[in-house]
Design goal:
Layout: H1 14-28, H2 37-42, H3 46-59, H4 66-74, H5 76-95, H6 110-125, E1 132-136, H7 142-151, E2 154-159, H8 162-174, E3 181-185, E4 198-204, H9 213-223, E5 224-237, H10 246-259, H11 267-276, E6 280-286, H12 312-319, H13 321-336, H14 344-363, E7 367-376
Parallel strand pairs: 1-2, 1-4, 2-3, 4-5
Antiparallel strand pairs: 5-7, 6-7
Helix pairs in contact: 1-3, 3-5, 6-7, 9-11, 10-14, 12-13, 13-14
The structure holds S-adenosylmethionine.
Length: 382
């Protein structure tokens, strides 16, 4: 399991960016930024939606051999773009506008836990009022909005997906945070920001989409000011994971396919990649490796006992096993009736695989979505 895979091309060229922007406009249709869930799903252009679905599924076609893996690594930019074109509405419908897991505690509501998880990262990094901060892989801006409010910093969200950027701007405006937030379309493997631009950088469950971790970490190192801190919740396979074990590999592949990840790396690879690009590790901890009564993957289980507030019932119904079966049946019916794009039900099946893989990976402690690293670019860095 190595991160130094042979040369993986940087795909974020201006031509590709322009093509993706035009496609995104055609796909998501009019008023795309303000529509969510089912209405956003049905608002899409069916033909363009089919292209996105095929683009995503073509890269995750059930194969786990080295050639299939290399293809995914080489296509990371376009295939991730297609993945998020297809799943963003499902994510918002099931999860809200912060696309990440959290630790959960008794008596604490889902949204409260999500915000706490974001505050924790911001406080570990030590983000201060007025700082210029970069959010790498910002989704539709849920964490950026929360961290901007919590710290008073100015946050730039970097994202490869045009649709998500459009939505992030919509929410920034809706919540009067336009002065503190901006969103930039770009590939985190090839950032266009000048060197030493940011006082701090964070990434929440996003850099796992990098084909090579050194690629994204070295870009973050470059755009950070000397002495600046990078904090990340990284998705990694833990020390318990054995790539030669068939069951482990199956679980890992379910996570890869259902979450649009070219290749999952181990915690050792991530740690070494941070050091290789020049970072000094100041703190690291797997937040999932705890005795918490409520596991991080609880919203994907069917366990009602974990639900902590009446308000969370609606989230839980949508994300739990039964809720997911209802969504799958609904999407299959829409596809059968010709209302939803062909292949839509294969996407919900892939998301189902992801949920099963994430729960199994969590229960067996093979996987964590919250390996926290807090690392610094040395003050005397050139
Ligand atoms: C699981 S989502 C997390 C989003 C956000 N951090 C949050 O917690 O809500 C991963 C994000 O990484 C972005 N992403 C994936 N590959 C990227 C790339 N090569 N460059 C920039 N962003 C990328 C996706 O578009 C998506 O927004």
């Amino acid at each position: 399991m190595s991160s130094t895979v042979s040369e993986v091309p940087f795909a974020g060229t201006p031509e590709l960016k322009a093509k993706q922007a035009a496609f995104s406009k055609a796909l998501h249709g009019k008023d795309a930024d303000s529509k969510v869930g089912v209405s956003a799903f049905l608002n899409k252009d069916k033909k363009a939606h089919e292209v996105s679905i095929n683009d995503f599924l073509e890269n995750w076609d059930g194969k786990t051999d080295k050639d299939a893996e290399q293809k995914r690594l080489e296509n990371y930019n376009q295939s991730t773009h297609s993945y998020y074109n297809v799943v963003t509405d499902f994510y918002e419908y099931g999860w809200g506008t912060s696309f990440h897991f959290s630790t959960y505690y008794k008596g604490e509501a889902f949204n409260q836990a999500t915000a706490r998880h974001e505050h924790y990262l911001a406080s570990k990094i030590g983000i201060k009022e007025g700082w210029k901060v970069l959010d790498v892989g910002c989704g539709v801006g849920g964490p950026a909005r929360e961290i901007a409010r919590f710290t008073g910093a100015h946050i730039t969200g970097l994202n490869n997906n045009d649709y998500q950027i459009q939505k992030a701007y919509h929410y920034a405006k809706k919540f009067n945070l336009e002065k503190q937030l901006e969103f930039v379309k770009g590939d985190f493997m090839k950032m266009d920001f000048p060197e030493a631009t940011f006082d701090a950088v964070y990434a929440i469950e996003a850099t796992v989409h990098a084909p090579v971790l050194e690629g994204v970490y070295s870009q973050i190192y470059k755009v950070l000011k000397p002495g600046g801190v990078f904090g990340v919740y990284e998705w990694v396979m833990t020390d318990n994971y054995d790539e030669t074990n068939e069951e482990h590999r199956r679980i890992c592949y379910e996570i890869e396919i259902g979450d649009g990840i070219p290749k999952m790396y181990s915690v050792d690879v991530a740690r070494q990649a941070l050091k290789n690009v020049g970072f000094e590790i100041e703190y690291e901890r797997d937040l999932a490796d705890s005795d918490d009564e409520i596991p991080w993957y609880y919203p994907l289980t069917g366990e009602w006992k974990y639900v902590q507030s009446l308000y969370d019932l609606s989230t839980f119904v949508r994300t739990s096993y039964v809720g997911r079966q209802i969504t799958t049946a609904f999407v299959s019916t829409l596809e059968f009736l010709g209302i939803a794009a062909k292949g839509s039900s294969r996407v919900t099946a892939a998301l189902e695989d992801a949920a099963v893989g994430l729960v199994a990976g969590g229960e067996k402690k093979l996987f964590t979505p919250m390996q926290l690293f807090v690392v610094r670019k040395p003050l005397n860095a050139e």
